[in-house]
Every structure is written in structure tokens, then in C-alpha cells.
Amino acid sequence: MSETRRNQSNHERIDSSENQHRRVVIENSHGEKLVGVLQDTGSTETVVICHGFQSSKDRIPMRTIANVFERAKITTFRFDFTGNGESQGTFQYGNYRREAEDLRSVLQHLRGENREISAIIGHSKGGNVVLLYAAKYKDVETVVNISGRFFLEKGIEGRLGKDYMKRIKEDGFIDVRNRKGKFEYRVTEESLKDRLTTNTHEACLSIHENCRVLTVHGSDDRIVSVTEAYEFAKYIKNHKLCVIEGADHEFTSHQHQLASTVLSFFKKDEDDSGDVSTSTRDLTRAVVPITSRI
To answer: 3-state DSSP call for residue 200?
Structure first.
């Protein structure tokens, strides 16, 4: 589709069989076009879903969550961050705070259409982004962090190698390639610094106590250890932690367990046990382990 045709309408049907699914193009604060999908159930109450590192709006678990919410008659909007999926811009390695500003542009656009933002949900890096957003803007009451990383200094060696700091100081960048040697993305010293200076601990402490936060993590996550989920529980005032037994980072075999857990929290399901407060003294009873049915 040409740019001219795209600009004629910000809302486009993406599938004639899914006539309530609309492709939406939103301009961010840098003039870049962010592409998303609105699954409109007729309700103006809208949940926004954010993807993770080098992912997109169309991958799991974003799409599964949107579909489960749709069946519950809840409108969702999932979109691609700058440089990801269909959105314009250059992919950046760090970019946590910049992606929080992308989210800001999305929420402002939706509110401009008289939609009420009832929750923001993020997976992996997107989990960090929704927490950073909540800490800065304090205009959302429900936040869900799925598989987010608390210690952002971790996980870097696995992608860049043990000598990454020395190499990036010498060359100014590191080119990341896949196992076949194909170029995937470039990590600049600036983008690495952005990640290392993003303070998750400070953000967690800054989230208002009236904002309900759910962290969901898989016990078998090999990308971000489940131990990091407990760190969020220590510092966010109004927090609930659910650990899904046997689930990996993307909840590959636990998609519907994840989605139903998130939906229950969103709907303030009284049958879901566990205190929402997770101060250090009551952390143990705030954790809700969920045993796999698979």
C-alpha cells in the first residue's frame, strides 16, 4: 500500500472477516508513524498492549491476550514500537524511555478519540516500558508487566559477548549477527548507555499506590529469570505477583493461562487469591503460583 493511500485514512480494515479489527496509524512525537491494530468491541474502554524486544504486535502473547479480551467484550489496541514491525523509524537496542514516549503518543491519540484507557499491558521489554510510563505520567490505574527484566544490566553478555564494553568503547558500536552470520541490528554506545542508565528500581518506587500492578512470570523462563519478578514485588506499592509453573519467556505452551490471569486481574476477579499489596513483610502471601494444566 502506498504512503499516499495510507495517509488517506488512519483507520483501515485489515481483514474483511474481522470487521471490528482496524489498522490504525499514529504519529509519535518525532513524526514517525506507529502502526497498530484496534480490536473494537464497541466499548470505548480500551486496553493497550505492548510487545517486547525485536518483536511486534502480531506475535504471542500480544495477539492471544487481545483475542481473549475481545471475547470478554473489551476493546484492545496493540501496536509496533518505533523501528519494529510495520512502524517507521530505526530499531534501537536500548530505547526504553523513547518507547515509553511512543506509548504516550498512542494513549493521547486514543484519548483524543474519546476512549478511556483502562489498562496498559507489556511483555518482556514492553513490561519495563509500561512501568516506566506509569512511573512518569501517573494517568493509568492498571498496569500488567509480563516477563519484564528488573536488572537491565543483566542479559547483555548473552547478546553482545563478555567483552562488549571494551569492544563498544573501541569501535563505538557492535553489530549483532544471528547464528548464520546475518546482520540483525547495531548496538551503539549511546543505545547501550540508555539501557544501563534506565533505573527500574527508581521507576517502581515512583508508581503511585493507586495504580494496581500485576507481574506475571513463567517459572521456566530462560531469558529473564523468575527471581527478577520478585524484585518488582519488593518495590511497587500496589502489586500482585503470579508465577505460572512450567511457562517459558513467551508462555509458548501457556498462552491461555497467561491471558486468563491477566483478564482476571483486569476485572478484579475476587476468586483470584492473594493480597494486592506486596510490601516486604507480606511478600510470601502475595505470590500466586499457578500450576500448569498442560
So the answer is: helix
Asked if residue 50 and residue 191 are part of one domain, the reply reads: no
Per-position b or e across 153-166, b if 16+ CB within 10 A of its CB: eebbeeebeeeebe
Tell me the per-residue pLDDT of 11-42, one tens digit each, with 9 for 90 and over.
Answer: 444 443 344 899 999 999 999 999 999 999 99
Q: Taking the CA atoms of 213, 248, 95 and 119 in sequence, report the sign of the dihedral they define.
A: negative
Give the CA angle between residues 108, 109, 115 to the nearest 5°: 85
Q: Which long-range contacts (CB under 8 A, 24 or more apart) does 256-259 make?
A: 256/64, 256/68, 257/290, 257/292, 257/293, 258/61, 258/64, 258/65, 258/146, 258/216, 259/61, 259/64, 259/65, 259/67, 259/68, 259/69
User: Above 90 in pLDDT, residue 137?
Assistant: yes
Conformational region of residue 83, where left means phi above 0, alpha means psi within -120 to 50, and beta covers everything else: left
- Non-local CB neighbours of 230 within 8 Å, separated by 6+ positions: 241, 283, 287
Taking each helix axis as running N to C, give the angle between helix 96-112 and helix 189-196, from 0 to 180 degrees, rounded to the nearest 10.
80
What sign has the CA pseudo-torsion 187, 189, 190, 193?
positive
Q: Do residues 206 and 189 make contact, with C-beta atoms less than 8 angstroms apart?
A: no
CATH number at residue 39: 3.40.50.1820
Residue 9: predicted pLDDT = 43
In a domain, 1, yes or no: no
| Predicted TM-score of the model (pTM) | 0.85
Give the domain extent around 186: 154-197
Give the count of domains, the chain.
2
Rounded CA-CA distance 207/203 in Å is: 7
Rounded to the nearest 5 percent, the helix, strand and coil shares of the chain are 35, 25, 40
Beta bridge partners of 33: 27
d(CA 50, CA 30): 19
